[in-house]
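Shipment paperwork, digital attachment
Item: protein structure file
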Amino acid sequence: MAISLDSSLNEQQLMMLRLFKKPLPEADFQELRKLAVKLLSKRLDETVEAWETDKEIDDSYYDKLSKGHFRKSKQ
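Attachment content:
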């Protein structure tokens, strides 16, 4: 069964598909999947931390948000 690759895939995505052309044992696939998620999580943490630094957001800001509420009062 031939699979048509979407032309919107970038070169890295195509390279990964070629690299894993043959199916991996399930344990190896799960380990690889966990590593990919860990890497993406790390990148997300770095992005959020950079955003917080740029916007000068610290723990006190989050504390303030957690103690407030966002419902409008009925008047």
